[in-house]
Amino acid sequence: MHRLKDLIKAGFVFDILILLGLSVYFFVFWEKDISLGGGENYTFLARDLTPYLWDSSANFGRLNTNIVNLLIALLKNTPLDIYISQIFMVFFYFAPYISMRLLLGSLLNISRTGIYLSAALYALNPFRVLYPISVPYVMFYAALPIIFHLSVGIIYRKIHFYYLLLFLVFNLLTPVSSNIALYTLCYLVFPFVYITHLLTVSRLEIKFIIYYLVLMVLIFLINSYWIYLVVDSLFVSFRATNNGLQMFSSLGSGYYFDFFRMLGSWSWYSGHNGQPYYLASSYYQLPLVIIASYSVVFMGFLAYPLFKSIKKLRLIRANLSVLVYLIPLIGMFLVLGTKAPFGFLYDLFYNNTVFLKPYREPFTKFMALYSLGFTLIFALSVQYLLLRFRKRKTLVFLITALLVFVYVAPVLDVKALLNYDRWNAGQWGSVVKVPEYWEEFISEASTKEHYLLLPSRGYGNSYNWLQGANMVWPYPEIATNLQVLRKTDTLSTEGDAVVNALYRNKVDNIGFFNVLHILYQSDFEFRYSNPENIESDTKRILGECSHKYGKFDQTYLEKVLNKDTDSSVRNELYVKLLNQPALCVFTVNEDEYLPKFYIPKNIVYGTGRNEDVVYMRDVYFPDVRTVYKINQAEVYSSQDNYCPVISYGQINDEEPEINLESLTWNKGWVWPKVEKQPRTFRHDIMLLSEKIRLVSAPDKLVRTDYEIWNSSKRIQEILEYNLTGDDRVKNIIRFNNGIRFAFNTLRTSLDEHSASVNLNPKISPDTYWGLVKKLYAYAGVSINLLSSRSEIPYTEVSDSISLFEEIKQWIGGVSEQAGCEYVFNIPKEGNYELFTEESGSWRKLRTDIYDTTSTIELKCADFTQSDNRELIKTSQLDVNDIAKFQQVNDWETSTEYTVSFDYLSSMVNVEVGVYEDTLDYSLVDRGTGVIDWDLIGKGEFPVQRRKIFNEEIFGFAYCVDQSQPCYSHFQKTFTSSSESENGYVFIKTPVEAKEHKSDVLIKNLSVKKRSIPPVAYIQEGGCINRAVPKISYTRVNPTKYVVNVSGATSTFDLVFQENFHSGWRLYSAEGMDRKNQSGVLYSTLTKISKAFFDIFNQSERHQFGSKSYFNGDIVERSSNDVLFDENTIDTWSKQAMFPKTHYIANGFANAWVVDPSVVGREDFTLIIEFWPQRIFYVCSLATVTLILTAILFIVTVLIRKHEKKHN
């Protein structure tokens, strides 16, 4: 009874009641068919999270960064998996509350009332609405107070026992490590607390740092299996974003008035089609809520002016005042990011420190730190007010609790927090209801075969499910064990590039890349992205789908949330999906299918990019069992050259930064005026000041601008003052010298080979090319003015004319160089046939002979297929005709076009655009929301006109050649939509043109269908088929395969169709009989390891039959995956075979050149293993061992303390 009273007094009973209440709510009242998911929260949707370092689920596999969720993985491989959503939601609310309650009790001397209220404020802080169920954020938010508590205990109270608890916490935080920014912050808490401690003591205690560093080294060693993965993924991301420079960042988002009421996550008030991005953003704009939120924050920051009173009341425990008052300020500074007045410091460190790039969204990364610090000062203020108004403390508490309740209400509303009912194009939700047809498909689909997804997007995938679904990656990738191929925005592997090329090519290529099925997802949200051309090819090439799942009937479609404000877009969903199957599986002809392992009969060598293998297979494909070796120069001189060499043309399609057609006088430029006559004292002073200005110019481009201006003034002086003789010659020489200097400066600032600017990074290319244009225009006008004066002999201006011609030639060369061209790398001498693709087939153009290796460049114009249309002949537009539409003939959908014309408009702007006709589905519901299903069945819809682009272009007042009209050139490339019927060029001349009596002339208007066909050189000659041995293979798990070879009499290539990685190793199984392994240690370690890893094994290994290909030459044996068994470590004592012949095959895959003579037999067994997986086995066992040891030690210490207390 005495112990129970102690528990009640300590508040533990109240904590238990909160835990029970949350558990009852989520385990009893939670909807059974609802799962957490959406956004990046695919952890809850995944079927299992088996800890393999190689993730084979997408685009031929990659390093598995999700393995860091070891804690979640263990949970999902237990019977509790079905309750994982409920468990996590209880954790979401309770863990931050209990951890903050613990911290408040250790730092502050305040009442339980203040502790409960403040801990609740931390757990329900509105900051959390941004990522309500993101595993890293929730774990970090819950763990941060505990890490502070343990750090304070170690440093301020010398409780060294807490080092073990820190060790446990850091190891349980592995789910946070997928967000490296948050995980790093966990380890920075201890040094921060130590620094604040140094501010209050006079003696430096270095032992704390030494012990902490030892702890960090130990944690690093046992967690190296996932640190290796995270570091590798960071390097991939940095390479893909130009060392982080092109990485998305939001360094100063949000508004001050929101940050000061703790709503920093409301960084954007905008949304999509009227739907706000953040669920409670409208709630927090209500007047009552604004008052409540500011009141809560004001109450918290009262702790600063009340510092002396709080200190006098001893509300903060000894020596902790600096820490408590510093945390909120540091948190606010970091959350504000680059906002003034101190944001320049954040900007300075962020831009000059590559390790800070993960902190590209400070308002999310530091929100937990800011919330924690604010909670501390809020607790102090509440306690002070309760003591100050002691007689009315109940009223003070009720008012404070009411303000806090209004402030945190959206977080208490679970359905609003998780956004149960939302529309796909609106906010991101956190729950999904998986349709039954997906469950049916998953139960029948083969997990060992590849599925190409259609439609497919990169980042961000939405599904038209009953409650919607917005996810980062496609559902079949994250929630099934299927191996899928899908488009990606960031290329992290060779396979990503090859898959993207497959989507640009044809469906009939996919069997060669180990893809047996196409999964057409009709429930994929198609309305906000154009489909690929590959979709239209699917039925044409593969026929009807072999398996159908689900059906979109009227009843189902009426239940799908669909709230687009555009009625035509909204109703398009019903028109396109009515009576369509939800999922449709197409199967590739097995005669065109290559299994996971094969031995090629033909070898084709090629040059180009790895992804060009998709096109090389089109232009030259001797046999299904062919391997393409790309850019492997060491083999080109070999006599073992079985097939011709292919050189695929690399397209350099850079638009020229400048061209002679666009070199006209800019709006805003003026011609210099002169007021000081040459040969006067005032003119001499002016020349001196010009020289001083040139010398003091901050950089060479600014001086170039000065030189162009000063040189033009010399010409104007000749005209203004009718200079003759030596005076005129001197000014022309000064003009030539200035223009020559400017020309040389601009020319030397350009890389002549690549037409790229070599400048100070702070100077933009636009500035450079603007100066080139200015040089041409001012020099041209100057020479034109001189040439027009009959009294000036040609001999005096001949040098100036020659200089201008030199400038023109240079600009013309730069323009031509930057245009479209094919680049071929011819790797060896021989006769090469040049092929180009036309209308889906390859046509031979000519044969070229090359005597040596060389790089060949050919202009795209020689091959480009264009469809030119002169829509308006050179004429003057009648300004009374305000707008003109010109129809584009033979308009095609999803096609790239270029529109261009020359125009003359000296005083007004001209509006130009391209419009297209699309079907108007708004009549389906006529704005009433009631769907006319009969109208959908008829399929007769009117046409509406929509713009593709629309912009204003400007006229110019001066011309380079004043004897000719000053025409400007306009050109723009655009793409027609997939649903368009007709296209139009739109030109609008404003009414003010008539008022200014200004003519607007348009000529040479054309629209070209832009098509750059693939072009390739193929060496003359044929292939020599090789006799190949037979193989059979079995997948043990995603990181290990066993291949049996029979009848190998000569060297052969073994191709393994997973993404190339140096970690894939090949071993011989010869001499690996497990019975020959001696020693008790080996046997004991194997049994212990198997006992632990059996948690992840769904069952013992079983064979499920086999498939044979190519008349039995290749046999695929099916079995379930087993993480660890008695054979797992058999290869650990062996040396990898043929490491020097490991190469990239088919642009992405692994291949080895295998020599049977090295093995010593014609029939043998090979093991292909992902070597880094061993790191996981060793480190995870070490982690579990150390954690169990630490727990045992902690329990022992606690028992001894308890016995000591009661004895």
Question: What share of residues is helical?
Answer: 40-55%
Trace the largest sheet across and list its strands: 16-15-17-34-22-23
The general outline is globular
Return the domain count. 6
Let me know the number of strands.
Answer: 43
Rg (CA only): 36 Å
Percentage beta strand: 15-25%
Number of separate helices: 36
Please identify the structural class as seen in this structure.
alpha+beta
Largest sheet: 6 strands, mixed
Oligomer: single chain
Task: Compute the separation of the termini in Å.
Answer: 19 Å
Could you report the average pLDDT, rounded to the nearest whole number? 81
Q: Low-confidence parts lasting 5 or more residues at pLDDT below 50?
A: 866-881
Q: Could you give the topology of this structure?
A:
Layout: H1 2-10, H2 12-28, E1 35-36, E2 54-55, E3 62-63, H3 70-76, H4 84-107, H5 112-123, H6 135-157, H7 162-172, H8 180-198, H9 207-222, H10 224-240, H11 256-259, E4 271-272, E5 275-276, H12 287-301, H13 307-312, H14 321-336, H15 343-352, H16 362-365, H17 367-388, H18 393-412, H19 414-418, E6 431-432, H20 436-444, E7 450-454, E8 461-463, E9 469-471, H21 475-478, E10 483-485, H22 494-504, E11 515-521, H23 533-542, E12 547-551, H24 554-559, H25 567-577, E13 581-587, E14 597-598, E15 602-607, H26 613-619, E16 626-630, E17 645-648, E18 650-652, H27 681-695, H28 700-720, H29 725-748, E19 750-751, E20 756-757, H30 765-787, H31 794-817, E21 821-826, E22 830-838, E23 841-850, E24 854-859, E25 869-872, E26 875-876, E27 883-888, E28 896-905, E29 909-919, H32 933-938, E30 943-954, E31 968-975, E32 980-988, H33 992-995, E33 1000-1009, E34 1015-1019, E35 1030-1037, E36 1040-1046, E37 1052-1059, E38 1064-1068, H34 1080-1093, E39 1103-1109, E40 1114-1119, E41 1142-1145, E42 1149-1154, H35 1156-1159, E43 1164-1170, H36 1173-1206
Parallel strand pairs: 7-10, 7-11, 15-16, 15-17, 35-40
Antiparallel strand pairs: 1-6, 2-3, 4-5, 8-9, 11-13, 12-13, 14-37, 17-34, 18-21, 19-20, 21-24, 22-23, 22-34, 25-33, 26-33, 27-32, 28-31, 28-33, 29-30, 29-32, 35-36, 36-43, 37-42, 38-43, 39-40, 41-42
Helix pairs in contact: 2-4, 4-5, 4-6, 5-17, 6-7, 6-8, 7-9, 7-36, 8-9, 12-17, 12-18, 14-17, 17-18, 27-28, 28-29, 28-30, 29-30, 29-31, 30-31
Transmembrane segments: 12-30, 83-103, 137-156, 163-190, 210-231, 283-307, 319-346, 366-387, 394-412, 1175-1199
Keywords: Membrane, Transmembrane, Transmembrane helix
